[in-house]
Amino acid sequence: MKCGFCKKVITPPLGTPLIGYYRERLAKGVWDDLYARAVAFESDGVKAVIVELDICLETEDVCDQWRKTVAEFCNMDENAVFISCNHTHTGPLTTKDFASDKVADPHYMAFLKTSVRDVAAYAFEDLKPARFFVAENQAKGISFVRRYRMKDGSVRTNPGTNHPDIVAPIGD
Questions:
Q1: Helices 60-74 and 106-125, interaxial angle, to 10°?
Q2: Model confidence, pTM
Q3: DSSP character string of 152-164
Q4: Least enclosed by CB within 10 Å: which of 19, 85, 94, 120?
């Protein structure tokens, strides 16, 4: 098996609408750059790639377009292109805003589509022999499940520690 990596800056220009917080916000500066990252795999001529983006979310239709673009450009199966967004609330607006009438900037979205294609292609250019190992561990106390199934059948977020009506956490 071979594996390759790439990352590319996708920080939006100043003035770009930002997502999250249910109020209008525009990019006024850069604390840390945002990235598109890719890890590509190839074994016996079969390719796969995972592209991770520092954006809050994207629609299925747009992700499908990006997957098709990557697949055509990299000569691979569209079903082997995986897109992931890390859900940052201080990233660019890439869909219709829930809190206003703002929509994603079409120029930035074109740049993002090209960036997704390029980061995947450069990851394939970086392919090198690789070996993979699997391990498992726990890091207790750094995160917790926030959604719980309750005795009445409902689902509650953060019902409180040791709430008497909790049946089980969802997603544990």
A1: 40
A2: 0.80
A3: TS-EEES--TT-T
A4: 85
Pairing of strands 46-53, 81-85: parallel
Please report which residue ranges of the chain form alpha helices under DSSP H.
60-74, 106-125
CA distance 153 to 130: 47
pLDDT digits (tens, 9 = 90+) for 25-57: 889 999 999 999 999 999 999 999 999 999 999
147-160 residue pLDDT tens? 899 999 999 988 88
Cα(13)–Cα(35) distance, rounded to whole angstroms? 14
Residues 34-54: b if buried by 16+ CB within 10 A, e if exposed? bbbbbbbbbeeeebebbbbbb
Assign residue 171 a region: left if phi > 0, alpha if psi is -120 to 50, beta otherwise? Answer: left
